[in-house]
């Protein structure tokens, strides 16, 4: 086997070919400052508005509710900076957990699902004293792939008059998001998780809540995020959203087959492997697993040398392996340094455009896991 196989799609999805073509096309458009009022500016503005329409269509919201940011992390920070009373699940992304505001934490169970009873009691008590509460629960966890019961979360939150933020960075392109059906107040998205370039994210202010911006200046994005718009990132996000909205609703059969094939192989060769979250409702592309006596950094290095680019459950930006707060929160503190995440393409369309992964290649991966 001589190619390095990328199995880290939850970290980032490579630029889709069609998105790349649309970007090359817009590089030839000339100057594109979407805030200028002249002909060229209007061309830029047009690209921006089209991208918003494509994203709005994908998640079924009004394009006017979309605020472009530099990343999902920035969108989350912008949102959280507006609230003083914030309730979050224990498995949120660090973009939520690290924001400077203090938070009340809702635990998850052993299967990585948010504890709805705990959440209800907490919100009931907090809402006695606080008028404005933001509840932040992610749709799909980036490490386990577990889909949270968002409909129930929203129903409980609304009983106590709380506003709801859902981090949908890992849900987009994997499962259906329909904001017309769910009373979610804020949604955050990341372009590069669906094959757009990095450096573009969005905050969806679904109920037009009055927010205060963090970045001040020229008043772009209706004053919510100043700075000349990243028009190429925006174009790419819009094109990737268009591709996702043209896919069939169920579009993960091939991805699921690959994942299940690999899980079964690994169970055969190393039955002591622990798979996190697999008893829950999960997206089809993610496997989080660990061996009791093998540190994650060692497993990651050996898999890398054997031509597989995977991730530890918790690599931080310096590449150093940290303890996984998700694995810990699920009650496996003893395995929090051992977890390895394999993530296949988010859906069959991206799997096909990337080149299929063969079962022979997965056999080689399983052999490598056996040899650890
Ligand atoms: N939320 C989740 C669940 C993620 O997986 C990520 C990225 O890994 C983010 C937020 C942050 O996204 P971005 O890279 O756009 O800042």
List keywords for this structure.
372 residues; Aspartate Aminotransferase, domain 1; Aspartate Aminotransferase, domain 2; seven-stranded mixed β-sheet; four-stranded antiparallel β-sheet; globular; binds pyridoxal-5'-phosphate
Written overview of the protein:
Helix content is 37%, strand content 13%. It is of the alpha/beta class and 372 residues long. It folds into two domains: 5-9 and 251-370, Alpha-Beta Complex (Aspartate Aminotransferase, domain 1), CATH 3.90.1150.10; 17-245, 3-Layer(aba) Sandwich (Aspartate Aminotransferase, domain 2). Strands 2-8-7-6-5-3-4 form a seven-stranded mixed β-sheet, with helices on both faces. A four-stranded antiparallel β-sheet has the order 9-10-13-12, covered by helices on one side. Helix 4 (94-97) links the parallel strand 3 and strand 4 (103-106). Helix 1 (17-27) runs antiparallel to helix 7 (231-245), helix 5 (116-129) runs parallel beside helix 6 and helix 8 (253-269) packs parallel to helix 12. The longest helix has 21 residues, at 39-59. The protein starts with a strand and ends with a helix. The structure holds pyridoxal-5'-phosphate. Residues 71-73, 93, 95, 138, 142, 167, 169-170, 190, 201 line the site of pyridoxal-5'-phosphate. Pyridoxal-5'-phosphate binds at residues 71-73, 93, 95, 138, 142, 167, 169-170, 190, 201.
What is the topological layout?
Elements lengths: L4 E2 L10 H11 L11 H21 L6 E4 L2 H9 L4 E5 L4 H4 L5 E4 L9 H14 L3 E4 L13 H10 L3 E5 L18 E5 L10 E5 L25 H15 L7 H17 L4 E2 L10 E5 L5 H10 L2 E2 L1 E2 L12 H5 L10 E4 L4 H7 L4 H13 L1
Helix pairs in contact: 1-7, 2-7, 5-6, 8-12
